[in-house]
């Protein structure tokens, strides 16, 4: 006999620690995608994640005898904090087993909420196995992160709030989107909504490299993945729960897959509307809602995305900012071959037109041609394909690298190397670091004022969102032109520094 989840959700005990989170319209994002994207703000829970709901409901359901002995879980993330805070509220011992590789910030967060941290093993699987051993030897109760009816019912209270709160928004709900790791949230939300409002679609969202639930539903049985991508670490689960699989298979309307770039774009979308920074798994539902609307060509529909967590590692923000433009298809990157002759750069920039150049990397290669790695801001993928076509027609062989993972992750940072031929030609390479104002025409102004007789032998620029772009330029200047070169620098009006004697330049680029 399966549990009655409508009854279990209605009777769930979550509000001693959890709060009823807002349902907020993401107005900027909605305008851009042509549908109302409404955020269920679980990132605003006391532990910055929905996990608190299921953990507390499970622990609160225990007998006084079991509470006295305490609880245990294995987790390196949001579930750990939910269990620790819930146990503290109920005056119960909580042992949290975490892999030895867990970042200090997460260990400290669990300890600050009263959890006893046990570090064991290099992976989650090893930590989980150790937790199962401790459960038996210390007679503790295991609090599973997803595969438990009480945990699922606790997460299902998210759906109860959505249906109640949405009455204040105009129009019916078309679909609700939930991230899937082990499936606890999606199972709880779907089981509740489908009992009361079967017309509302419930859509799960997974990453392409951690799609255990989608594969399992397709094959009709649970599939164990050999490995999972770790960017959205909160949903990096190799094997979904038995009960969550049963519920998702029965109640989910679809599962959408998204990639890392789409998640980064969704993090940026939510930040622009709310000034909150979601963790990758927390933004998964937003990325899924956007992708679902695009695939199904939806217009003017109400789409609700559960923003499930905001425990973001600060050091990931640089990567997120770098990749968000790709996720929105607002940046294209190309490898372009330019002839080594006067005016080639200017003609190339004229073809780029008023589009913002986000990156420009080049190192002298041969006397006949130059290979440049360039990033350009575009409105969509169609525009980038048109630009490739235009460059090709005007005699600039162009390779589109926008979908190339190696290029985006590595090559862009490695364009360069020694150029012995620069010195052999008897010209002095002058290496200067500049601050260009971040405005259209700054590079064209630089090239216009520069003497046509000086060859650019190195160029590196990347837009970092500041008022000034940091640019490194190598120029081959004949010894007799040094006076004119100094005058050029003075008249240019850009802040600059001579790096020609920099030891790093001599080691890697000179």
Please outline what is shown here.
By secondary structure, the protein is α/β, with parallel strands linked by helices. The chain is built from 21 helices and 18 strands. It has three domains: 21-49 and 149-321, Rossmann fold, CATH 3.40.50; 52-142, 3-Layer(aba) Sandwich (Rossmann fold); 329-508, Biosynthetic Threonine Deaminase, domain 3 (3-Layer(aba) Sandwich), CATH 3.40.1020.
Q: Ranges with pLDDT <50 over ≥5 residues? A: none
Q: Compute the average pLDDT.
A: 89
Radius of gyration: 28 Å
- How many angstroms does the end-to-end distance come to? 75 Å
Total number of β-strand segments?
18
CATH 2nd-level architecture of the largest domain = 3-Layer(aba) Sandwich
Mind explaining what this structure looks like?
The structure is a single chain. The protein is an alpha/beta fold. It has three domains: 202 residues, 3-Layer(aba) Sandwich (Rossmann fold), CATH 3.40.50; 91 residues, Rossmann fold (3-Layer(aba) Sandwich); 180 residues, Biosynthetic Threonine Deaminase, Domain 3 (Biosynthetic Threonine Deaminase, domain 3, 3-Layer(aba) Sandwich). Helices cover 42% and strands 21% of the residues. The strands form three sheets. It has an eight-stranded antiparallel sheet. A six-stranded mixed sheet has the order 1-2-10-7-8-9, sandwiched between helices. A hairpin with a 5-residue loop joins strand 12 and strand 13. Helix 3 packs across helix 5.
């Amino acid at each position: 006999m399966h549990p009655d989840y409508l009854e279990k959700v209605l009777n769930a005990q979550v509000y001693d620690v959890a709060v009823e989170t807002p349902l907020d319209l993401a107005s900027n994002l909605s305008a851009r995608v042509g549908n109302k994207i409404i955020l269920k703000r679980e990132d605003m829970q006391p532990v910055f994640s929905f996990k608190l709901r299921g953990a507390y409901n499970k622990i609160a359901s225990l007998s006084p005898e079991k509470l006295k002995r305490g609880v245990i879980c294995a987790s390196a993330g949001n579930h750990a904090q939910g269990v620790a805070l819930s146990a503290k509220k109920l005056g119960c011992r909580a042992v949290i087993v975490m892999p030895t590789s867990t970042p200090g910030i997460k260990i400290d967060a669990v300890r600050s909420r009263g959890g006893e941290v046990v570090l064991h093993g290099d992976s989650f699987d090893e930590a989980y196995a150790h937790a199962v051993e401790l459960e038996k030897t210390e007679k503790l109760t295991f609090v599973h992160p997803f595969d438990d009816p009480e945990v699922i019912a606790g997460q299902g209270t998210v759906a109860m709030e959505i249906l109640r709160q949405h009455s204040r928004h105009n129009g019916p709900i078309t679909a609700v989107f939930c991230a899937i790791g082990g499936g606890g949230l999606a199972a709880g939300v779907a089981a509740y909504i489908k009992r009361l409002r079967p017309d509302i679609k419930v859509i799960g969202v997974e990453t392409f490299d951690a799609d255990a639930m989608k594969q399992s539903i397709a094959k009709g049985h649970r599939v164990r993945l050999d490995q999972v991508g770790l960017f959205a670490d909160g949903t990096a689960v190799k094997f979904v729960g038995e009960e969550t699989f049963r519920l998702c298979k029965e109640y989910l309307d679809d599962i959408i897959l998204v990639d890392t770039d789409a998640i980064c774009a969704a993090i940026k979308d939510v930040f622009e509307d709310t000034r909150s920074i979601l963790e990758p798994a927390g933004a998964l539902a937003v990325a899924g809602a956007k992708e679902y609307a695009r695939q199904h060509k939806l217009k003017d529909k109400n789409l609700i995305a559960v923003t499930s967590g905001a425990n973001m590692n600060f050091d990931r923000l640089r990567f997120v900012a770098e990749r968000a433009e790709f996720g929105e298809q607002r940046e294209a990157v190309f490898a372009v071959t330019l002839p080594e002759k006067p005016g080639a750069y200017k003609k190339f920039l004229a073809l780029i037109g008023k589009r913002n150049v986000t990156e420009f990397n080049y190192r002298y290669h041969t006397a006949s041609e130059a290979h440049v790695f360039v990033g350009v801001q575009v409105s969509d993928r169609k525009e980038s394909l048109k630009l490739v076509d235009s460059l090709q027609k005007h005699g600039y062989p162009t390779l589109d690298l926008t979908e190339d993972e190696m290029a985006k992750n590595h090559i862009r940072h490695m364009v360069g190397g020694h150029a012995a031929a620069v010195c052999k030609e008897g010209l002095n390479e002058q290496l200067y670091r500049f601050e260009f104002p971040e405005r259209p025409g700054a590079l064209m102004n630089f090239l216009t004022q520069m003497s046509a007789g000086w060859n650019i032998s190195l160029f590196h620029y990347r837009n970092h969102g500041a008022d000034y772009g940091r640019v490194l330029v190598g120029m081959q200047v004949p010894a007799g032109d040094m006076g004119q070169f100094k005058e050029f620098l003075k008249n240019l009006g850009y802040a600059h520094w001579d790096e020609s004697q920099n030891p790093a330049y001599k080691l890697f680029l000179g």
